[in-house]
Amino acid sequence: MPELNTSSLPDLIFSILFFFMIVTTMREVTLKVDFSLPAGTEIVKLEKKSLVSYIYIGPPTREYRAKLGTESRIQLNEDFAEVGAIHEYILQERESMQERDKPFMKVSLKIDENTQMGIVTDVKMALREAYALAINYSATKRQ
Amino acid sequence: MAKKKRKVPGLNASSTADISFILLIFFLVVTSMDTDTGLARRLPPPPDPNQQDEDVKVKGRNVLVVQVNMNNEISYYYGDQASRVYQQNVQPADLYPIAKEFIANPNNKANMPEFHPADPPLPILGAYPITQNHIISVQTDRTTKYEVYFQIQNELMRAYNDLRDEFAMKNFGVKYSDLPSGEDKELAVRGVYPLKISEAEPKQYGTN
Fold first, then answer.
1. Which of A31, A93, A137, B147 is most buried per CB count within 10 Å?
2. Where is pLDDT greater, at B162 or B208?
3. How far is A136 from chain B (nearest CA, A)?
4. Which domains does chain B have, with CATH numbers?
5. CB of A4 within 8 Å of any CB in chain B?
6. Which of residues 62-81 of A touch B (CB under 8 A)?
7. What are A6-18's pLDDT values in tens digits?
8. What pTM was estimated for this model as a whole?
9. In the predicted model, is pLDDT for residue B13 greater than 80?
């Protein structure tokens, strides 16, 4: 049986590798809150990930539940935060963006569907104060 | 000493495939391809602290107020005092026909938004009469579930999208979502039914 020539295999794998490096983005953060997003019919895609900052709101994951309870909490970057920290977070995110992208900054709110509106209203108010006005209620597609 | 012509031995590259496989798997694990989807909204800028706390007067007929109480029960009202329509205990899906009729006011009812010629004029259509002063306000209690609020937003958005689709179909023969974004036709349709969902919670309404 003749041996198979595998000399082009590395090239093949490399091209797949480059494809993935270009198409995907780094996973943003490790989540410390659980959320199941609401489902809607009118949702649109969020373009350009580099313009988007994320705010997660939901009940803490199992390992933090003993300490923090099951009330919805806010997560910014890697840690739990209070509403007061949002202003600082937005300023930091904006600072790390390129100058020409700054006016197009978007904030994606990933909120658990059982969250109470009080915390959501507070977050929205904080975003207005920080002039992060383009927001996105993250949701999944419902048929 | 005579130079001996030496042959460069071929490098054994059989493990390159394995190395690149490991790299590939690393990227597969670390990165994500999921696209974020959701409802896009624009918040109003923060209130100016130097500004006098003046109530913005909005005519009663121009406002559709959707309220959700602490038990996640939805009610809505619109129209001025004399001809107010008030409805309690509705489902989010019930808001869709109401919002659609309210925004377009096809029968020119007195308790729904009045028409004004578009100012500034719309591309293609010019000073087309539109209900540009209408506002849909969603008011929630602090303990309302986010899910309910989101479904309301979704139904309102559906009303706008369908109105725009119908208008674009009638006038340009294509659906609104198929019009190229930012061009005259798309801007015209968007101008006829401007998205006016209030994110702020207005304090008081002037009565007409």
1. A137
2. B162
3. 4
4. 60-198 (3.30.420.270)
5. no
6. none
7. 778 888 888 988 8
8. 0.80
9. no
Closest partner residue to A108 among B38, B150, B153, by Cβ? B38
pLDDT value at residue B140? 86
Q: Which tokens belong to B129?
A: 């009469």
Average pLDDT in chain A: 86
CB contact A42 to B (< 8 Å): yes
pLDDT at B204 over 50: no
- Listed by start position, the domains of chain A span 26-141
Instruction: Determine contact: A128 vs chain B, CB below 8 A.
Output: yes
Q: Check: CB of residue B85 under 8 Å from CB of residue B73.
A: no
> Which residue of chain A is at minimal alpha-carbon distance from B159?
A42
